[in-house]
Amino acid sequence: MEPLATNAALLIIDMQQGMNHPRLGRRNNPHAELQMQHLLNAWRRSQRPIVHVRHMSRSPDSVFWPGQPGCEFQPALCPLAHEQVLEKNVPDAFTTTGLERWLHVRSIKQLVIVGVITNNSVEATARSGGNLGFEVIVAADACYTFDQTDLAGRLWPAEDVHALSLSNLAMDYARVIETAEILAAAAPLQTD
Fold first, then answer.
1. Which of 34, 40, 32 lies closest to 11, judged by CA?
2. What is the model's pTM?
3. 11 or 191: which leads in pLDDT
């Protein structure tokens, strides 16, 4: 992979305390948060832009209903005062958040996306980013999802849901790679 742009943005999607709620079920990729932390630390060291996206649900029974602890960022991934925070009400972080304009104003063309849920907010945001002409990179090992029952009642393991979602993205919308490769592409700027 070629070196990342000096202004490549890291989008951390929905890393809120509600993601740890037992009602969401069994998840895959138990080390995803650690990979996200590695990327966040690298972005902070290189002073690249960071966007923290927070989901604020419109459903009162959601773990992300405003005013509940589930809305708060997970401590290890909390934004710093100067980092951008966007709130969304739907899976796609581009919808009615001003994200596209925020990126264009800063001439940002590259986006590295991490977070949750792979087949929901991560996928929706990556698809929009790709459709809008951004160069989107999804860190496969810095995302996760949950077991999912399909419309026929079949239970799909989170690992399969994650793999299929990433495969869908890799077809037309994003480059899907591991954190280590992204960190290697970000490294040249860190030594300045």
1. 40
2. 0.95
3. 11
